[in-house]
Amino acid sequence: MSVSIIIPVYNVSSYLEEAINSVLEQISKNDEIIIVNDGSTDDSGEKIDCLYSNHPNVIIIHTTNYGLGGARNNGLKHATKEFVYYFDSDDILSPGLIESFYSTVSKYPNLDLFVFSAKSFSDSSSSDKLPEYDRGIDALFSDGKQAFSYLYSQDRCYPNAWLYITRKEVIDTNNLTFKSIIHEDEEYTPRLFNVAGQTIVTKNIYFNRRIRNNSIMQSKFSERNIIGYIESVNSQMELVKTNNGIFNKMLKLRIINNISIMYELIYHKNIQVSNNTKIMLAKLIDSNKGLALFLLERSFFMFRVYRYFELKFRKRTKIPYYKTNNL
To answer: DSSP E strands: which ranges in the chain?
Structure first.
């Protein structure tokens, strides 16, 4: 049993040593770390070579700039281990993830997907509320669809790729790669849940997300964000066509949520976008007509009231799972 840990790097010289060392400190001799220098313009590439080129578990790849999704895909091409984990080069891995994962797989040898929790910390002294990634449960699900349905019903379905360890066979068989868009995880993760078999979810925190002002996700929203969400919704609508039951219901709610995010950015936060992008959003709204989007187009306040009560009822959804301990 072993894990390929793929770490894209782009202009994070100040953080990468702490990040990569937090992974090195807990891997086994059979694991591999694949560092992809994605065309950094600072000294990240040189620092990686200096610090890690002689480490027996580390593979270093230097490429032109493909973006986060492309860098992950490039790393995946070199992955040789049984499981794959995508880690970000400015964050910190909590002690115990790899050990806990191996312990879990020894109990559940058919496990396809290991889903865990995370917390955030900030480089600044800002008093803004930090994102939380609490799964709220330790549970075994028969497959990824069941896990997605439960997590989304409880408003605990976080798409970030660094919250999942996946059996590589699942990735290879289903050609699970990332698109070169912003919000690539929102497009990728539902596809992952759709094809994963046995899935473990734990409330244990194994990842520390660094919030920094100049990161991709903290920068000012633009049309690229909207286009990323459009790609994600189109992908999710394709999943709806080939599924049914509770998984479909939760996917449709996810689609409504993503459409509402785009609508708010354009029409309430005044993000400037092209007419073509507005037309694409209008088509998505038209394809997903219902009470929620009817309210969204007429009163954002009433839409939020609707969403408040919809979530309350959604959390009452009964989805079977098996409680687990000591993850």
So the answer is: 3-9, 32-38, 58-63, 83-86, 92-93, 113-122, 139-141, 164-167, 199-211, 322-323
Evaluate the CA torsion angle 72, 75, 76, 77 in order and state its sign.
positive
CA distances from 207 to 69, 115, 123 (A): 20, 11, 16
- CA 123, CA 117: separation in Å to the nearest integer? 20
Q: What is the domain partition of the chain in residue ranges?
A: 1-91, 223-314
- The residues, ordered by sequence, that sit 6+ positions from 214 with a Cβ below 8 Å of its Cβ are none
Q: Tens digit of pLDDT for each residue in 56-93?
A: 999 999 999 999 999 999 999 999 999 999 999 999 99
Name the CATH topology of 1-91: Spore Coat Polysaccharide Biosynthesis Protein SpsA; Chain A (3.90.550)
Considering the chain, what percentage of its residues have pLDDT values greater than 90? Answer: 91
pLDDT digits (tens, 9 = 90+) for 276-324: 999 999 999 999 999 999 999 999 999 999 999 999 999 999 998 888 8
How many other CB atoms sit within 10 Å of the CB of residue 145?
Answer: 24
49-87 burial, b if ≥16 CB within 10 A, otherwise e? eebbeeeebbbbbeeeebbbbbbbbbbbeebebebbbbb
Would you tell me how many other CB atoms lie within 10 Å of the CB of residue 290? Answer: 10
Q: Which value, in Å, is the radius of gyration of the alpha carbons in the chain?
A: 20
